[in-house]
Amino acid sequence: MRVLVRRCWGPPLAHGAGRGRPSPQWRALARLGWEDSRVREKPPWRVLFFGTDQFACEALRALHAARENKEEELINKLEVVTMPSPSPRGLPVKQYAVQSQLPIYEWPDVGSGEYDVGVVASFGRLLSEALILKFPYGILNVHPSCLPRWRGPAPVIHTVLHGDTVTGVTIMQIRPKRFDVGPILKQETIPVPPKSTAKELEAVLSRLGANMLISVLKNLPESLSNGRQQPTEGATYAPKISAGTSCVKWEEQTSEQIFRLYRAIGNIIPLQTLWMANTIKLLDLVEVNSSVLADPKLTGQALIPGSVIYHKQSQILLVYCKDSWIGVRSVMLKKALTATDFYNGYLHPWYHKNSQAQPSQCRFQTLRLPTKKKQKKTVAM
After folding, report:
1. In whole angstroms, what is the distance from residue 288 CA to residue 285 CA?
2. Structure confidence by residue, pLDDT tens digits, 144-155
3. For labelling alongside 143, which of 16, 104, 230, 381 has CA 20 to 30 A away?
């Protein structure tokens, strides 16, 4: 049985250098406190991977491909830790691991094998110091933002939600007790494609992060030696998204803010509002072109936020917000309805019944969900 000794003090060890000078690899390990002569100085590495979702799957796929590449010899052992799931098939990482015949553990079980380095991607759990110390090279995190911006569990969602024009991926070494605060080993930036959804952006960042991870592992000791602390300025937090985030605030939000919200979370939680005291979900939002906005029906009357009008030519619902109009192609009210269905089944009968009413009285209203001390229904990318 191999015994690894951790050293947390004293000068770096001059090991593995012919003239008594410490190599870069051993200087890195000495900083981590490792002095066992059998710790590997170079690949192939033994890797324990922690992950759950599609973003994590891309990193796992890259690690698996590296393990299968016998010519390069970067990884010779790869095992997986994921979270339990109500689904019999499990989360995407488990599905991929089963398909690839990789050993799998379900958190909090992390197995009892020996590894050189851990890798985390979209895992959502703080790892204890005792666990981190089991890895001679620590645990790396593939994080889809340019840290210290958007620390936390939902960085891609908040990138889109806040209209960031630049994002990226950070490979960092994790620290116990706090998320996303460790030293940066590698960081690359990309422009955010205009009008991209969080799901689309996540796919781009997952491929970038997987490639960066392999690059770091090829020069792991040197990457650790050259790691830099995160800047103290510019730190922002990306909390989980709750159901309350999906409630459109017609009086407060501009059309641009509503479209950002839709692109950020629409594929996870549909945007919600109120129609005559009933919750209605907005399934498909579209921008309104200038020819529609020039319609006298829209410009010739005073409207208040939430006012809803059916535009027959384009077959969309037009909803007025703080500064302009948004278009809605389909909604969910008891069942999925096109804009035309909603008009025929709800709007037209309302106008018929209230023939003297002003259009501003026919409107969506902001849905106010009851506040809870601990929101149970939360979603994180």
Report:
1. 10
2. 999 999 999 999
3. 104
Q: Rounded distance, CA 181 to CA 34, Å?
A: 22
Q: Give me the phi and psi of 64, to 5 degrees please.
A: -65, -40
CA distances to 94, 109, 118 from 113, in Å: 19, 12, 12
Helical segments of 123-193, H only: 129-132, 155-161
The pLDDT tens digits of the residues spanning 193-205 come to: 999 999 999 999 9
Could you tell me the CA-to-CA distances from 379 to 109, 154, 217, 244, 261 in Å, in that order? 24, 9, 31, 11, 14
Q: Are 190 and 171 within 8 A, CB to CB?
A: no
Please compute the mean of the pLDDT values over residues 215-229 and round it to a whole number: 97
**pLDDT one-digit tens code per residue, 174-194:** 999 889 999 999 999 999 999
Q: How many helices (H) and strands (E) does the chain have?
A: 12, 15
Classified as helix, coil or strand, 132 is helix
Taking every pair of Cα atoms in the chain, the longest distance, rounded to a whole number of angstroms, is: 96
Cα–Cα dist 314/337, whole Å: 16
Between CA 141 and CA 187 the distance in angstroms is 12
Read off the pLDDT band of 2 (50, 70, 90): very low
3-state secondary structure (DSSP) of residue 6: strand
CA distance 321 to 364: 10
Burial zone of 11 (CB within 10 Å; 0-12 exposed, 13-18 middle, 19+ buried): exposed
Q: Which residue has the tokens 């906005």?
A: 293
Distance between CA atoms of 330 and 281, rounded to whole angstroms? 9
Neighbours of 347 (CB within 10 A): 18
3-state SS of 221-277 is: HHHHHCCECCCCCCCCECCCEEHHHHECCCCCCCHHHHHHHHHHHCCCCCEEEEECC
Q: Per-residue pLDDT for 9 more than 90?
A: no
Return the residue matching tokens 């340019």.
146
Mean pLDDT of 17-32: 46
- Give the tens place of pLDDT for each residue, 250-275: 999 999 999 999 999 999 999 999 99
Residue carrying the six token digits 């599905």: 95
The pTM score is 0.86
